[in-house]
Amino acid sequence: MAQQRRVHLSVQRPTSTVCVLGTELSLDVRGAAPKGSVAFHIQGTPGVKLYVIHNSQSIKLPSSVGRWPLDPTPEVLLAMDTISKDVGDEKVKISYFRESGGVPTGRAMLYLTCVVGSLDADISRSGAVSRTLLDKKIWTWGPDGHGAILLVNCDRDDPRAETPDNRDAAICSYNDLKDMSQMVLRTRGPHTIFTGHRLLLHVDFSDADKVRVFYGGNSVALEEYQHVLGVSKLSYTVKPSRHQEESVFYVEGLAFPDIGFSGLVAFHVTLLESPEKDLLETPLFTDTVVFRVAPWIMTPNTLAPLEVFVCSVDGNEDFVAAVEDMAEKAKCPLTVCPALENRQDRWIQDEMEFGYVQAPHKTFPVVFDSPRDGQLKDFPIKSILGPDFGYVARQAPGRVSSLDSFGNLEVSPPVTVQGKEYPLGRILIGSSFPRFGGRRMTKAVKDFLVAQKVQAPVELFSDWLLVGHVDEFLSFVPAPDRKGFRLLLASPSACYQLLKEKQEEGYGEAVMFQGLEKVPKPTINEILTNEGLRKFNCYVQSCISWNRGILRRALGLAEPDIIDIPQLFRGDVSSGAEAFFPDMVNMLVLGRHLGIPKPFGPMVGGKCCLEQRVRELLEPLGLSCTFIDDYFSYHVLMGEIHCGTNVRRKPFAFKWWHVVP
User: Fold this and answer.
1) Among residues 262, 298, 254, 259, which one has the least CA distance to residue 444?
2) Does the record's keyword annotation contain Ligase (predicted)?
3) What is the pTM (predicted TM-score) of this model?
4) Statement: 4-115 belongs to CATH 2.60.40.1860
5) What is the pLDDT of residue 303?
6) Domain spans of the chain?
7) Span 336-350, pLDDT tens digits
8) How far is Cα 458 from Cα 455, in angstroms, rounded to an integer?
9) Partners of residue 474 on adjacent β-strands
10) Is 176 a residue of the active site?
11) Nearest 5 degrees, angle CA 450-CA 563-CA 481?
12) Is the CATH number of domain 297-651 1.10.630.10?
């Protein structure tokens, strides 16, 4: 239905008003009728379309009916489809009559000026602003959906700045403008109409702190662009130019969707009629356009790698060289964070997570800085943030736990669960569930992840681990069949089964950690007869099996979609579990190239039986397994390859706005 406004008439004096193209005016015919009048006749000039609603039917005028009864109260609508050249160049005349009179008891005159007032954005998501018949006030999901999209301008285009662009109120470069979405105000009609009317661009108070709008008038010079709307500025008076029918505004997002903010922001333009002195302005027409702020999207292991990050610390030269060799095989650039920047903190995966934001006109990566804030805390904002590389962070209000590190944040590849599609996968986080009173990911991070909507998070049980990260017992690798991937789960049961096989083959005296110094070297026989170790690994297996059930249901997996990787753990129930030998699930995935922690398992026939079993499981999928000596991290800092590296990956080909949450 077209936007409609009621217009009051008078037989004492002519009435003048504005009709915006595409809207309707409802005429208060009865309110102006002289006393004793029972009927009316209405006619308009050619540019006016008139309709009388009579007996629930809309009758276009002129018609065979000459006079219309005033009782019951008549409804008269008018619309205009031609823009006025002069003020008041179209008119409507209403004549009133008594029951039997031929002479009018009075006449009301209405002078009309038709103008265009339209606030437009890229509603069709084509990458350009255009006029459309789609409802601009409604934002809809899915491949057939519509609605404008806004990016959080969280990169840093000015190399002299210390913070992201969304924290300043200036345009530093034309590249800065390219990160923003255009919003176009179109006005047409007699220019003199605006001497008695005002165009007001405004934003709701609840949305104002989420956006900032810039306007440069007719100029293309950067210095002319000013912050005109958003934050503390709730409205801006637009002065249409006689020679320019379009005013182009640039809109930047300041905040991602989060608790209390759905991501939707509405902008309005209102045409106000300026009354006589000391009276308030009267709104005549409002046009609204709604944007949704693009979510932060996380990328799974199965997407192509674009850049590998690793930290160089004292004593890990061989590890860095091994990662460099892997990156070269995968034809992927390597960035080494030097000791001066990492300050001996090698856990770069725990410090940050890579993702991206996307709109029809622009896509760029965004690093998510964890609340962990170790010695690497300055690296994301000082070394990653830059032109077309954004930054976002969430802080814990109190003390952080190890579950706030981003080794405890993973995402699955795309899945379909009972007919429900998750084309961007589902985020996986670890928690204390089903135990109460344990460690949990901080609410600020969890709320942020949930609010993005497009990768509905799944909560797993990870508090049984000493460190508590989901990447200690699960990973994803690409596969050529089924769902396009395999879920890898650490499995004490698979490890005991393998060791039992080797014992029965006569290798019971083969030792773990052969060749390493100052490390106990238990044999296969000793491991299998260690009842304390077996009992603890039964507990670990029960925890992983619990998660297996959650993952099968949440990701729609069948058993053939899961591969059990042999792995033992040590520790106790009160303090938590840690890997008994380097955790092979905690691997680096670069396309088909896998960097797996070297397990230093028992040597059987001159080969590590643990490595051989993993090769047998993964290489038939077309994957290349490289076992990396991560002895430094395992025996000195109890880490793993995945936590010591980080990978920026290619965005999904699937557009997030096609998701149906």
Assistant:
1) 259
2) no
3) 0.93
4) yes
5) 98
6) 4-115, 122-293, 297-651
7) 999 999 999 999 999
8) 9
9) 489
10) no
11) 85
12) no
